[in-house]
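Q: What residues go here?
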């Protein structure tokens, strides 16, 4: 089975995405998995020269030809900027190009030309004037793929996988919106993804409590009894292997992590703090619930170091590697069902 290339998006051209992509090509050029970058070839040539990163750039007309040139040059599907990008200085004039990069990569994945999409970091505020009206990449990709409302965010690393039930909302808003149905939906989507994409035959899901000591039998809060326990009953009725509610302050120890495959957490920081503390360099953002594979490095645009040639590509390389693995498993599943 021929391995399809992945599509890597531009990200914010004032951030570190470009130099991460250049360095990722240098690290991966001799490996089987290749990628095509949707970016401005002229800006990449200038960037490579500025940061003294020897990477030949090759503009291509078709993503499918990426494999033919990948060993010798970084294949780029041109997405031209409106104005030259200045490191650390986002310019709304380039917002349309950033959005177009995401749209084109997603379309390629939907057509099956590429195996999946890997997104470099964006700055949403810099995109709003160009009509970007989404909380983030995840919601935009869900809309582009017809999966709005089905998307779930997973952060994955070799040491931990986490799924936050509520994501980009204030803590106060997250607590107000949390309900049994949201927990059930997140857990079901995570379970299906772990089976299909990660090859885990019977995933073990650890359900986090919300309150200190998981509520201490109601003394420190009753959400474990009124919201979380009913969700767990529904999931067990579905045949899922769930445990909890786990006290959030002890469920991320090495001994505890050995007992589950994913932690279903109640809000953003409850999930992301332990993952980023344990393994930020290898952490990958994976969007579950989409008809395409999508991953992203687990960090932002890093304007403070952009253009200095010191950005670490480890997370992007991990995102590319995980996307390739997920895409390969999906392809095998499709062939097996044919």
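A:
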């Amino acid at each position: 089975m021929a391995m399809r290339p992945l599509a890597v998006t531009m990200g914010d051209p004032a951030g570190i995405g470009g130099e991460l992509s250049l360095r990722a090509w240098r690290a991966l050029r001799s490996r089987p998995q290749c990628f095509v970058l949707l970016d401005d070839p002229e800006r990449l040539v200038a960037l490579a020269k500025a940061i003294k990163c020897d990477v030949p750039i090759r503009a291509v007309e078709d993503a499918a030809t990426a494999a033919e040139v990948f060993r010798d040059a970084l294949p780029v599907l041109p997405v031209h900027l409106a104005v030259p990008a200045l490191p650390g200085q986002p310019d709304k004039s380039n917002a349309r190009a950033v959005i177009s990069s995401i749209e084109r990569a997603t379309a390629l994945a939907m057509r099956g030309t590429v195996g999946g999409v890997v997104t470099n970091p964006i700055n949403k505020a810099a995109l709003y004037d160009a009509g970007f009206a989404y909380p983030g990449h995840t919601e935009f990709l869900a809309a582009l793929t017809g999966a709005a409302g089905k998307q779930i965010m997973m952060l994955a690393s070799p040491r931990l996988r986490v799924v936050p039930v509520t994501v980009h909302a204030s803590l106060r808003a997250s607590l107000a919106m949390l309900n049994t149905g949201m927990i059930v939906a997140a857990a079901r989507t995570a379970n299906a993804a772990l089976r299909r994409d990660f090859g885990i035959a019977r995933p073990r899901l650890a359900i986090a409590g919300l309150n200190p000591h998981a509520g201490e039998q109601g003394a420190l809060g009753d959400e474990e009894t009124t919201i979380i326990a009913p969700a767990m009953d529904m999931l067990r009725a579905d045949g899922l292997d769930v445990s909890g509610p786990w006290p959030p302050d002890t469920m991320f120890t090495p001994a505890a992590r050995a007992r589950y495959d994913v932690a279903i957490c109640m809000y953003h920081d409850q999930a992301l703090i332990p993952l980023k503390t344990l393994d930020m360099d290898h952490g990958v953002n994976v969007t579950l619930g989409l008809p395409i594979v999508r991953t992203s490095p687990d960090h932002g645009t890093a304007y403070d170091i952009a253009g200095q040639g010191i950005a670490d590509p480890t997370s992007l390389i991990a995102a590319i590697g995980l996307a390739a693995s997920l895409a390969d498993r999906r392809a095998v599943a499709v062939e097996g069902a044919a």
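A: Context that may help when evaluating the design: The CA atoms of residues 90 and 138 lie 21 Å apart. DSSP finds eleven helices and twelve strands in the chain.
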